[in-house]
Amino acid sequence: MASAPGAPGRSLLVLVSLVTVVLVLVSAVECYDGHHAAAARSAVARRSRLAMGTRHVRHRRTATPHRYVLAEKSNATGGGSAKNRSSPAASNNATSPTPAPAPPAEPSKHHRNHRHRVRNWIIGFVVGSLAGVISGLVLSVLFRLVLNCIRGRYGSRSGVTIFTPKLIRRAEHLAFLEKDDGLASLAVIGRGGCGEVYMAQLPAEREGAEPRFIAIKKINIKKSADTPNNLSDEESRQLDKQSRQIQSEIRTVGHIRHRNLLPLAAHVPRPDCHYLVYEYMKNGSLHHALKGGGDGEAALSWPARLRVAVGVAAGLEYLHVSHHPQIIHRDLKPANILLDDDLEPRIADFGLAKAMPDAHTHVTASHVAGTLGYIAPEYHGTFKFTARCDVYSFGVILAVLATGKEPSDPFFTQTEEVVGLVKWLRRVMLAGNHAEAIDPAIAGAENEEQIVLVLRIAMFCTADDPKERPSAKEVRCMLSQIRIQQDLV
């Protein structure tokens, strides 16, 4: 992903920060030792001066004149025991021991032990923290390498790259795509601007296992043997455009994972084309589901449509907010929203998607890309695509879900004044004719309030000024509240 190249730089920054912290703590320990040693020496000096002063005071208080000392000495030598007995005070003064001066005090052993314990604790803490961070970085790198190998980020020798090992367990399951006639026996389930889409069944892992199906999107990137050599400039530009789109889709959706995004399962390169493998969605696209199945199947109910709206908003929030760098889809429309077995929406077809770095605010294109009717008005004039342009496209999808009409519906060309879906919706909603805007297939008193709320959100998302449009996160929160109310009813 885009954040991988910056990992070594971040690791180096972390190591430099840790070394700086170690140096600061070591300096603090040295300052701590020096401060306490100086404090101890000053305390010793103060106690020595105090002891000296006390000794001089005592000497001045207890010392006797020199002549009396001589007399006492003479009396003591001359056998003056009686005089000594008759003057007990003098005897006591003469015989009382004079206190010896106190030796200079030294720092106690307890103080030294405490100082060493503090220093050892700080050094041990720093060394342990440093060792833990380094081991964590090493384990994270090893884990990323193992995860990339499991996900197939590093392609096999045959060139097959597997991104979803839960679906494609072995590269041998896609070996038939390496043959020239590998798609001859497969059914075509769709066609797009880049190529056809086929359906295939994977080999069963064991007997009795449920069959697994995949959708294979073929994109031509080079002239094949049956392609005429005298291609026009427009056809050559179209081939170059397809090649750029396939590379963009591989880089963009190869490693993103979200329940409302259709992940790329595998990539099989060929000399003249690329095969993109996806999980097969048997319920098809939202475009076909809104019109009902060809076998008489009814169109989607309102609760199912509201669930689709919330799911698409959640997937769009992931692309715009949670994923780094931000991804702009640039081609949101019902045909690019697929429905799984539980009618959970999956945003697909990232051929026009762009990864926008965090320091950028928009993506500049050389020409307008997308589907008419879903493109934001400012994109036509500036060629600058922002996240709010995706929000505009999503607002059109909300209008389609509630009204049952798409921008290309003949209804908008049969009127005297040619207007699009967005302008028509504004006119109807501002006039208060809510019932006119609601799809008859989902009309009902129990759903009208929620449908009107969704239509108002669609108007907010399709505002002419991009600054007045809500973000994908705000839209998802508003739709989630409506769905909660619908569940309570």
Automatic annotation (TrEMBL):
SUPFAM superfamilies: Protein kinase-like (PK-like) (SSF56112). Residues 1-28 form the signal peptide. The keyword Thylakoid does not apply. Residues 183-484 form the Protein kinase domain. It is found in: Membrane. Residues 86-97 have a biased composition (Low complexity). Residues 51-64 have a biased composition (Basic residues). The chain crosses the membrane at residues 121-147. Residues 51-113 are annotated as: Disordered. InterPro entries: Kinase-like_dom_sf (IPR011009), LRR_receptor-like_kinase (IPR051564), Prot_kinase_dom (IPR000719), Ser/Thr_kinase_AS (IPR008271). The keyword Transmembrane applies. Keywords: Glycoprotein, Leucine-rich repeat, Membrane, Receptor, Repeat, Signal, Transmembrane, Transmembrane helix. It comes from the Eukaryota. Pfam families: Pkinase. GO terms for cellular component: membrane. GO terms for molecular function: ATP binding; protein kinase activity. It is a single-pass membrane protein. PANTHER family: LEUCINE-RICH REPEAT RECEPTOR PROTEIN KINASE EMS1, LEUCINE-RICH REPEAT RECEPTOR-LIKE SERINE_THREONINE_TYROSINE-PROTEIN KINASE SOBIR1. This is Protein kinase domain-containing protein. It comes from Panicum hallii var. hallii.
